[in-house]
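Try this one yourself first.
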């Protein structure tokens, strides 16, 4: 339902689909793995928080199996999320019997920074500098998430950063090398790149055990991994 609602306005705003040679086929993406790779939270018992990066590859996975939305409309959504970098944030301060208060949208915005793999730092774009169709999509997303995750969803806000640096490279590319960092309230939320969920899975040739695409060796045995499909009957 979400995709059907989002696709039409986005399709009218986005440019025709472009070929991206570095992107892996969307059908190979596992949505749950991308969600895992793009969410971070603090280990501090003093807060409850979530930082969720929503790259274009998330939408490639989310739309891949939806037959009700035209391919051109799916691509319009994907292209819009390539033009910008979107991060969802919720931060709550814990009290003695639960969450004492959630930080406001303005409080988070004032202290939120994105650092790309080249070390360039960005602040969130003012609302009047965000594409109107993207802003509409994010307005639709918020109540839908709230209905799923409750109070945290009610306090989850989306912040939009530039999608490309001056050199034309994506500020937050899941296929890049290095590290993307979100800085907020004296905390850092790092995303090691490339994300394993957008690379071909790797397998232990002896056991067939499957690992994220960013792994090169079996962390349990040290055996070198490869990208060949697991042997029949293996894990």
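Now uncover the answer:
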């Amino acid at each position: 339902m979400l995709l059907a609602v989002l696709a039409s306005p986005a399709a009218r705003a986005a440019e025709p689909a472009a070929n991206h040679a570095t992107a892996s086929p969307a059908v190979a993406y596992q949505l749950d793995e991308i969600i895992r790779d793009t969410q971070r939270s603090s280990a501090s018992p003093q807060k409850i928080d979530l930082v969720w990066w929503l790259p274009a590859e998330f939408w490639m996975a989310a739309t891949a199996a939806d037959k009700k939305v035209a391919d051109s409309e799916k691509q319009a959504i994907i292209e819009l999320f390539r033009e910008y970098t979107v991060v969802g944030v919720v931060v709550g301060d814990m009290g003695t019997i639960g969450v004492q208060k959630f930080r406001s949208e303005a409080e988070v915005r004032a202290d939120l920074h994105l650092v790309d793999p080249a070390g360039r730092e960005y602040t969130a774009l003012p609302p009047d500098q965000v594409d109107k169709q993207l802003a509409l999509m994010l307005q639709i997303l918020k109540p839908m998430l709230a209905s799923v995750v409750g109070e945290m969803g009610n306090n989850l806000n989306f912040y939009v950063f530039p999608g490309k640096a001056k050199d034309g490279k994506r500020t937050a590319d899941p296929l890049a090398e290095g590290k993307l960092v979100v800085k907020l309230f004296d905390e850092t939320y790092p995303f090691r790149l490339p994300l394993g969920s957008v690379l071909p899975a790797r397998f232990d040739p002896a056991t067939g055990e499957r690992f994220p695409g960013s792994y090169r060796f079996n962390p349990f045995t040290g055996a070198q991994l490869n990208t060949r499909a697991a042997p029949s009957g293996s894990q």
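Discussion: Confidence is low (pLDDT under 50) at residues 1-27. The helical segments are 2-13, 31-37, 56-63, 71-83, 105-111, 132-149, 151-154.
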